[in-house]
């Protein structure tokens, strides 16, 4: 068993408490998705707090190596991560700090934990500081439902809340896309793509077998998925290439219009069918 795996197992068995070199240290487990493999990878990491004890951060020190750690490269490509604190497990969007904000945070972290300063002196790369911004599932009147109907309303509630949050993020008229907007856009689009892929490959064929009269409706939904996917692809391209925020905002507004109308249509037709399955 590797050292990291031993720490992970001890962490999970003892509500986040571990011994050895990490005894008494603030520790989390961060699970990222491989940028190339698509497989999950879990890493034990220190989690310094920001000024005033606010926020949760991880530092890509890699012991002062000249190479960014694998988990950092993974979250740049796939920003939606899972965090285990010992008492909670939740999803977060990983957002590297930029510019003056990164300098402020790193200086604070070094004052609290001077070892990070030594790591920075040992390498020419700028050690990244990453904020883990927790995502919140939107609550709705149907969110307590069981079965597939409850799952659908919870996922749709999350998607509605996240697109609204994206549209609230600050944006300049022609400023380059910042890391916060980039990471949230990528996380949202990747989650939405996975949801639609699951519907097309699993939920819709399963329902079509039981309700063949809905086959035409499912074909329409699948075509809408493709249209929404094309908008997502444009957003991902703009954010990865450092396009301007005004262009991203216009695409986000288009995605919002397409997606919200799609979710409303899907729920109006499918929720009565799904609820009847468990009645």
Helix content: 55-70%
Give the radius of gyration.
Answer: 21 Å
Quaternary state reads single chain
Which parts are unreliable, with pLDDT below 50 for 5 consecutive residues or more? 138-142
* Global geometry: globular
What's the N-to-C terminus distance? 48 Å
What is the β-strand count?
6
Strand and helix map with partners:
Blueprint: H1 3-13, E1 27-33, E2 40-46, E3 57-59, H2 70-77, E4 80-84, E5 89-96, H3 99-112, H4 115-121, E6 129-134, H5 147-168, H6 179-210, H7 215-241, H8 245-278
Antiparallel strand pairs: 1-2, 1-4, 3-6, 4-5, 5-6
Helix pairs in contact: 5-6, 5-8, 6-7, 7-8
Fold and architecture overview:
The chain contains 8 helices and 6 strands, in the order αβββαββααβαααα. The protein is of the alpha+beta class and 279 residues long. Strands 2-1-4-5-6-3 form a 6-stranded antiparallel β-sheet, sandwiched between helices. The chain is globular.
Looking at this protein, list some descriptive labels.
279 residues, alpha+beta, six-stranded antiparallel β-sheet
Brief synopsis:
It is built from 8 helices and 6 strands.
């Amino acid at each position: 068993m590797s050292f990291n795996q031993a720490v992970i197992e001890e962490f999970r068995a003892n509500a986040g408490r571990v011994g050895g070199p990490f005894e008494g240290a603030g520790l989390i487990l961060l699970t990222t998705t491989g940028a190339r493999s698509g497989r999950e990878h879990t890493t034990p990491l220190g989690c310094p707090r920001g000024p005033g004890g606010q926020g949760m951060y991880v530092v890509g020190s890699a012991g002062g190596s000249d190479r960014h750690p694998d988990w950092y490269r993974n979250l740049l490509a796939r920003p939606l991560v899972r965090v285990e604190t010992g008492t909670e497990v939740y999803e977060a969007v990983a957002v590297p700090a930029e510019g003056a904000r990164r300098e402020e945070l790193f200086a604070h972290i070094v004052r609290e934990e001077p070892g990070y300063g030594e790591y920075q002196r040992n390498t020419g790369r700028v050690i990244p500081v990453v904020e883990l911004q927790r995502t919140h599932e939107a609550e709705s009147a149907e969110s307590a439902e069981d079965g597939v109907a409850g799952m659908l309303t919870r996922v749709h509630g999350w998607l509605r809340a996240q697109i609204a949050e994206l549209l609230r993020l600050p944006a300049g008229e022609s400023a380059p896309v910042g890391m916060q907007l980039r990471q949230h856009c990528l996380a949202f689009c990747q989650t939405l793509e996975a949801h639609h892929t699951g519907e097309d490959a699993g939920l819709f064929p399963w329902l079509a077998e039981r309700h063949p009269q809905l086959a035409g409706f499912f074909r329409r939904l699948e075509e809408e998925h493709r249209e929404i996917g094309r908008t997502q692809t444009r957003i991902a391209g703009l954010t990865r290439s450092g396009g301007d925020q005004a262009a991203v905002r216009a695409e986000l507004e288009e995605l919002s219009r397409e997606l919200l109308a799609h979710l409303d249509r899907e729920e109006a037709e499918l929720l009565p069918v799904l609820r009847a399955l468990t009645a």
